[in-house]
Amino acid sequence: MNKPRWFRTNISATHRSGAWLAASIVLCFAAAKCPGENLPFNLKVSDPSVATHHLIVGRTDLGLTDQGGGLPASLTIQGIANGSNVLAYDYGKSNVHDIRDELHDTRYNVVHSGYNDIKGRPIQILAMASQSGSGQRLYVEPFSSSLWCSDSKYDYTQYEDLVADSYGDDGGNSDADELPEIGKSMIDEVQSEWDFAEYYEDATSLISVPNVDVIRHYYYYEYKRPAEAIRQWHAGIVMLDGQPAINPANRISDISPIHYPGLQTATDIDMSLQHMTYSLRLFNTDNQGYRYGLYMSQNSGEWVSKDLARGEPTLNIRSFGPQYTDIVPPEQFTSNGCFAITDSVENDGVKDNLIVAARSTDPDAPGAVGLWHWEGSGVNAHCALGIQNRKVIYTEDRRIQSKFAFSCPASKQKTFGKFHGRSMITGMLAPDNLPAGVTEACQSEQFYLVGTPNAIWDAVQQLKVHADVVNTVHHYNFSASSAR
């Protein structure tokens, strides 16, 4: 394909709107060394419901655990659910942020929280001042993330010296990847090539709407190390669900449609048709009661509600895109493709990229939790970063499409509603396929807002035009010296 006229190789690369954004990107990449990088890789059985660190924002208490990759372990709101935790925990639930791709049938699944629901990834969390106003930030230092257990679809772990894998009939000493692994350990199999870092911080100072608590969340995954664990997914392997470990139909023709000249066709060690997930799982039992999903209709400008009664069909609704349709396999947009909006409102959209988890359909009822993934933010519009010598040397808009979903499937007997967002991007290039010393990272930010749905909506109208949200591509310096 021909590169668009607005192709740029410098740090100020724009997104499709053509609006130039300043890009003073520092992150932890600019520090001499990030303390969390010195942590040895480990997995440990622990209680995912126990918070080790708390971020207090107004009436809202968000608890994180340093035993599960900084995953939230609890969410309590004064005056709601008798002060009990409303967040569905476990290292595969809560609001876990994972990455996976269609080329590897979504089973090469990189997760910051750990290996399965009870086997977490111990890490370090620092408390420091918020960079979005008054209050505090909880910062999860960069660490090497784990691969998920593949949900009993593919046994890639021959060794079980860290923890038992999810396959009880394999004798504890075999796997299905057909690779010679004599002399290796479980670390070699489950430690991913990716580093993860994130923060949650008080951002209420960015708005003037009363009685709304605002938490800003930012994270990135960096493909930091040469391909190794990803090679356990290779041509010729058929997984337990009958799907091939490598699906060539999902090999995108150009991972980097803006920055790198020519076609960067995905290889088996790249990420192709990649998912970036951000979600919120809240209990929908009688006590905790988050049974309804609300969004503002793009067409009508009115609130639409979805009852999350168990077994009701999942509602998927588009919030961005599609773009780059000329390089995405056409079948991906059909009813069976990963980018299809199935069981959905086909001709509508989520206005201003906001969904709300609510205890009733009343837009003036308190205790609602909004999940806002603003596609107009500088971070989300520059979702791909090129890194060299701990400095960002290019950014790129690789978004294909984003969608939200509300669900509570009967098949899994869940006691929580899933308020789910997913961005689909072209992919990420492995360090092996980049110029020497260059790596790539994908980044994302969301805001969590607590209040009434109407007040949350008003707050979003202020946030979406705030310079700190629109123009920041990130300039934060995550250094241990700023911790307190």
Overall description:
The structure is a single chain. This protein is mostly beta strands and 484 residues long. It has one domain (28-482). It has four helices and 22 strands. The chain has helices at residues 186-190, 378-381, 453-463, 467-470; strands at 44-45, 53-57, 60-64, 72-77, 98-101, 110-111, 119-120, 125-129, 136-147, 191-202, 213-223, 271-283, 292-297, 303-307, 315-320, 350-358, 368-372, 384-388, 391-396, 399-407, 416-428, 438-451. The chain has a 17-stranded antiparallel sheet that branches. A hairpin with a 2-residue loop joins β18 and β19 (391-396). The protein is globular, with a radius of gyration of 21 Å.
Radius of gyration: 21 Å
β-strand amount = 25-35%
What form results from the Cα inertia axes? Answer: globular
Summed up, the helix count is: 4
> Distance between termini?
50 Å
How many strands, what sense, and barrel or not for the largest sheet? 17 strands, antiparallel
Number of folding domains?
Answer: 1
Contiguous uncertain segments of 5+ residues: 1-33, 475-484
The helix-and-strand class reads: mainly beta
In terms of quaternary structure, what is this? single chain
Pattern of helices and strands: EEEEEEEEEHEEEEEEEEHEEEEEHH
Number of extended strands: 22
Helix residue percentage: under 10%
Mean pLDDT: 83
